[in-house]
Design goal:
The chain has one domain: Glycerol-3-phosphate (1)-acyltransferase. By secondary structure, the chain is α/β, with parallel strands linked by helices. Strand 6 and strand 7 form a beta hairpin. Strands 1, 2, 3, 4, 5, 6, 7, 8 and 9 form a nine-stranded mixed beta sheet that branches. Helix 1 packs across helix 3, helix 5 packs parallel to helix 6 and helix 6 packs across helix 7. Helix content is 38%, strand content 21%. The longest helix is centred in the last third of the chain and has 24 residues. The chain starts with 11 loop residues before the first helix and ends in an 8-residue tail after the last strand.
């Protein structure tokens, strides 16, 4: 019988090796990767430990490259103490991801999905740790409407208190031979579960936050306005106008 759940088994050797491996991959395939809104993530990272509670980084999901970009951000750019969720069939195929903090989820199986959310809660609750999530649940073209699955709302309820930081990712190729990855952190959502809190409200708040961050990111990319961005990857030279 095949495994129905694969836990995270992070270790420093795997993090160091795969962080550098994926960083080199971005440098080979991209002209550059740029980011803005980092102050929203830094505020969560700097939070004191007197009353610890976790952070979820909720990302848009429009490309296979999203996983690589977020791994590099986590392990190389910001050096985060973070886990991530990955489809079971993919984690079975690429077991090394467990060593950098990935654990499995089967979104189409409600019982399996709840198991993964309970596991995430056990690793996050009463800590300052972080979790990367793609709450849309599947790959959606970057210009289509965003709709999040209720899993992020369910996890917020289980945690009781959590900061959710939205992150929009976008890929463009205009003046250069190789694409640019644009990344934008949005305003955090502070969830303190109370009598009137609902899973639907949290899910909608995340949907709206990602929609807003994506719209601002799209406008910046459309008008080539990178004045508020800084590069976190400098990649391949171009024969274009860069």
């Amino acid at each position: 019988m095949s495994e129905q759940f694969i836990p995270a088994r992070p270790n420093n050797l795997s993090k160091a090796f795969w962080g550098r491996y994926f960083e080199r991959s971005l440098k080979r395939h991209f002209h550059r990767c740029i980011v803005c809104g980092e102050e929203h993530l830094h505020s969560a990272m700097a939070r004191g430990s007197s009353a610890p509670y976790p952070t979820i980084i909720a990302c848009t999901h429009a490309s296979w490259w999203d996983a690589v970009v977020t791994i590099v951000m986590s392990l190389r750019t910001y050096m985060l103490d973070a886990d991530g969720m990955m489809e079971l069939k993919q984690l079975r195929k690429y077991r090394f991801f467990s060593g950098i903090g990935m654990f499995s989820v089967v979104r189409e199986n409600p019982r399996g999905a709840l198991r993964s959310l309970s596991y995430a809660c056990s690793r996050l609750k009463n800590s300052n740790r972080m979790l990367w999530m793609f709450p849309q649940g599947t790959l959606i073209h970057q210009d289509l409407s965003i709709a999040c699955d209720p899993g992020i709302g369910i996890l917020a309820k289980k945690l009781g208190r959590v900061t959710i930081v939205p992150l929009a990712l976008r890929y463009e190729m205009l003046r250069d031979q190789h694409p640019t990855c644009w990344a934008r952190f949005g305003n955090p959502i502070e969830v303190i579960w109370g009598e009137h809190s609902t899973i639907e409200d949290v899910t909608l708040s995340v949907t709206n936050a990602l929609t807003m961050a994506s719209a601002l990111l799209r406008a910046d990319a459309k008008y080539e306005d990178d004045s508020a961005y800084r590069p976190f990857i400098i990649g391949r030279r171009s024969l274009g106008n860069s």
